[in-house]
Amino acid sequence: MKKIIIIGGGIAGLAAAHRIQREINDGSDLDCMLLEGGDRFGGKISTEKSDGFVIERGPDSFISQKPAGIQLCKQLGLEDRLTGTNPGAPSTFVYTGGKLVTMPDGLSLMIPTKFLPFALTPLFSLFGKIRMGFDLLIPKKADDSDESLASFVRRRMGEEALNKMAEPMLAGIYASDPEKMSIRSTFPMFVETERKYRSLIIGMLARKKAMLMNAGKRPATPYSLFMTLKDGLGEMVEAAIKKSPNIQFKSNAKVKTIEKMQEGWRVQLEDGWERMADAVILATPGAITAKLLQPIAPDSAELLSSIKYVSTATVTLGYKKEGFSHSLDGFGFVVPRSEGRSILACTWTSSKFPHRAPEGYVMLRCYLGGALQEEIAEKDEETLAALVKKDLLEIMGINETPVFCKVFQNHKSNVQYHVNHSEKIDSIMEDLKNYPGLFLAGSAYRGIGIPDCIQNGNQSVESALEFLNTKSE
Question: Which of 150, 232, 256, 337 lies at a 20 to 30 A Cα distance from 37?
Fold first, then answer.
C-alpha cells in the first residue's frame, strides 16, 4: 500500500485529499493522511452562521469561468447547493470625486466594448476617454518579458484607466500594489489579447462576437460569473471531508520536519509523532513551505521565502432593512486609493447573493488593508469597525446602528505575485525534480482563486500518482 501525506488543510489540500479518495474508490491501494497545523480545516475559507445571516470570513464566492470549482462541487454532491449572483442587481460603482458613479455598461474588466455608454459615462474625463481610445492605435509590446499591471495599463490605456479601474478593481482582487504585481501571472488573458490582436479593445470585441456566434451552438450556462453555496463556502470544506472517508484528517498537527529517507519521506510533528510516506504534498503557505524545505531543498526554500504576503481585513455589518438609508441597488463599489479612504471596496452582500441575510435585514462587507494600506488591516478590531462606519456614513450616508459588526483579520495571508513570479515558480518546480516524491500545491504558485487552488491540488496528486506508479514498476 502506497502512503501519501498531505500537509495543509486549506482548499488545495482538501481537493488533493478528495482526488486521492476518488482514486481509492476506483480500486487504488492508497493510504492517505492530511495534517493540518490549526484547529480547523478550510484555510481562508471560513463560514459563520448567526441568526439567519451567512457570514464569510474569507472568500465569499469563486469564478465559474475556471471549471475546477464547479467540478469539485459536483463531485461532492453539492450541485444543487450552488447559487449565483442576483440577476436583478448587476450594477457596480466606483467611488470617485466624492460620489458613487456607475460603471458603464459594456466595460469588460477595464476595457470598453460599447461606445455610447463609455462615451456618456462621467466616470472618466474626456481626456481619459480619448487616451483609452488610443489603445486602438498603439502597437503591441515588442518582446515577451513580464511587466507590472501598472506598466501594462499605463502603456495601453493611460493613467486614468489605471487609477480609476485597474488599481481598485484588478489590483484589488489580489490586494496588491499595481506597480509590482505581475500582469502575466495575474491577468494572462490581457497579455494574450495584446499578443494576438495588438489592441485590447479589438481583442475584447472579437471575443464578444465569437461568444455571441457560439451562443446558439451550445446550451446556455446556468452559472453566473461568481458562484457560491447556499449556506456559504464552508459547505465545500465540510463535504470534502465527509466525502473522503478513507482519508485520515488530523488537526492540531504542526509539522516540525520532513526528511528524505532511503525508503521514502519521514514526517515528524512538533509533539514527536512521526510517520513514513512514499510521497508528500506540501499544501501550506509559502513561508511555512520554505521553512520545511530549508534543510532539504535550500534553493527552493530561498525562492519561496522571497514571495511576499500581506495582511487584509474584512468588516461585515448587518442592519434592519426598514428605514435603511440606502437602496443597495447594485453589487457594491470599489474605492481608488486617490480618494483617501480606509476601505478598498464594499460588497452589498444581501443584494449580490440570495440567502445571505434573513428577511427584513441587509448585510454589507467591507475590505481593508492589502499591499498599499497594510497598516490599516493591522489595527485593532475596534478601530477597524470605527473606520468602516465612518467611511460608510460619508460614502453611502449610513448612520443607523448595525445589529452586528464582525471584524476578521487575515495576518500576512494574501500572496503577492510580483513581476517575474512565473519564472520564480518555474525555478522552484525544476529544483524539486531533485527531490522525487515531494510535491507542492496552494495559492503561492499558479493562481490565488479557489478554482486555481483546487486545480493545483488535483495536479499535485496527478504528479504524485505518476511518481508512485513509476516507482513501483
Answer: 232
